[in-house]
Amino acid sequence: MVRHATAEWSGSLKEGKGHVKVETGALDSPYSFRSRFEGGGETNPEELLGASHAGCFTMALSAALTNAGHPPANINTTAAVTLTPVDGKPTITRIDLTTQASIPGIDNSKFQEIAAGAKAGCPISRALAGTEIHLEAKLV
Asked: Is residue 31 domain-shared with residue 15, that is, in the same domain?
């Protein structure tokens, strides 16, 4: 399976503007230097990566829990993507996944074991193997 996304940029880095979109039409958004490095109302690559990672991990956790006989009632995950300079270049150095899950009939120890496996096995985590990835998983 191959998925497609496109990005277009016009102008210099700081004064220019860009646009990203995905083939399904689910995302079609402007982005800029300001939205990426200074904050702003448009999207940026790091938040898109965070959304991808949160979504991927959440699905992997749901699958792993279900396969272990503990289908979840609900899972909610956020991803905090840290962009910091390394050797003078902006670098994604860390991603913090925070998940809360409602899972009938599971103890915390088993949940933590399954969550750690989902973090390690989700395709986005594996693609980001060179990035520090932390997980805080809570049963609610």
From this structure: yes
